[in-house]
């Protein structure tokens, strides 16, 4: 097995347990990342739909606001310089609210009107075209609110898109690299342990065969000795006496042995 597709470990029961525990942890993390990806995709689709609707409303609102501004210019003339000179503080401010979407830190922007700020142009246009000035102010305030909402949704979509890409890279890394390496390592350990068991079994068989062969040789040697004793009458008689002396019987005597 190629060592590049597995982790360099020694084949043992301890490492097998470690690899299985790692597989369980990696599988749990993989499932959590998949769920996170699905949650981010759902939230991203919702934000994209809201941004598309807000963009359509924003186009209509800006068109109405610039039409009202053109009406003011037609009625009162050019008044941009007067507005820029008299405005000191902003009446509409942006409130940043941190949010957490499935572990992704985002910022929600909300337009808030500051009532404490002085409105120096609240009586502008009373001489001529006052109602058109009021309509233009309302239209541009609404446009600012929609712009802030659109910016918040766009920022959320960008952050969620980056988070989804990063999470998918992690998921693909776990699925294509880490999990196959763990599986190959487990297979390698099982193969090595099986080979060790076969070697140990073969060794035990050889040892047992040698013991059996030794027993057979010993039994054959004993049988040979017994056969030698059984074919030799003198040895057999000595064995029957039990003291190692040859027993002589009268029918075995010769004439020379007779002394009387």
From TrEMBL:
One Pfam entry for this protein is ATP-synt_D
Kindly list the GO molecular function terms attached to this UniProt entry.
proton-transporting ATPase activity, rotational mechanism
Supply the InterPro entries for this chain.
Answer: V_ATPase_D (IPR002699)
Tell me where on the tree of life, at the top rank, the source sits. Eukaryota
Keywords in UniProt for this one? Ion transport, Transport
Q: Which Gene3D superfamilies match?
A: 1.10.287.3240
Keyword Transport listed? The answer is yes
UniProt key word Plastid: no
Q: Which PANTHER family match?
A: V-TYPE ATP SYNTHASE SUBUNIT D
What is the recorded function of this protein according to its Swiss-Prot or TrEMBL entry?
Subunit of the V1 complex of vacuolar(H+)-ATPase (V-ATPase), a multisubunit enzyme composed of a peripheral complex (V1) that hydrolyzes ATP and a membrane integral complex (V0) that translocates protons. V-ATPase is responsible for acidifying and maintaining the pH of intracellular compartments and in some cell types, is targeted to the plasma membrane, where it is responsible for acidifying the extracellular environment.
| Family, per entry | Belongs to the V-ATPase D subunit family.
Q: Which named protein is this?
A: V-type proton ATPase subunit D-like isoform X3
Source organism: Papilio xuthus (Asian swallowtail butterfly)
Q: Which gene does this sequence derive from?
A: LOC106119369
């Amino acid at each position: 097995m190629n060592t590049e597709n597995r982790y360099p470990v020694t084949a043992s029961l301890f490492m097998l347990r470690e690899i299985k525990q790692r597989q369980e942890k990696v599988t749990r993390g993989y499932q959590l990342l998949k769920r996170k990806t699905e949650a981010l995709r759902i939230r991203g689709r919702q934000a994209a739909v809201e941004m598309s609707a807000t963009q359509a409303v924003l186009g209509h609102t800006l068109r109405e606001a610039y039409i009202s501004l053109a009406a003011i210019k037609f009625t009162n003339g050019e008044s941009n310089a007067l507005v820029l000179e008299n405005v000191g503080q902003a009446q509409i401010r942006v409130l940043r609210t941190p949010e957490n979407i499935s572990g992704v830190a985002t910022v929600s922007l909300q337009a808030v009107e500051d009532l404490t700020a002085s409105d120096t142009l609240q009586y502008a246009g009373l001489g001529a075209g006052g109602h058109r000035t009021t309509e233009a102010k309302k239209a541009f305030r609404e446009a600012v609110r929609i712009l802030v909402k659109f910016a918040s949704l766009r920022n959320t979509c960008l952050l969620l898109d980056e988070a989804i890409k990063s999470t998918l890279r992690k998921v693909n890394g776990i699925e294509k690299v880490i999990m196959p390496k763990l599986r190959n390592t487990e297979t390698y350990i099982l193969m090595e342990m099986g080979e060790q068991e076969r070697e140990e079994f073969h060794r035990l068989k050889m040892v047992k065969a040698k013991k059996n062969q030794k027993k057979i040789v010993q039994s054959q040697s004993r049988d040979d000795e017994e056969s030698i004793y059984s074919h030799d009458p003198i040895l057999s008689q000595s064995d029957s006496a039990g003291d190692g002396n040859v027993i002589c019987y009268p029918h075995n005597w010769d004439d020379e042995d007779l002394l009387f």
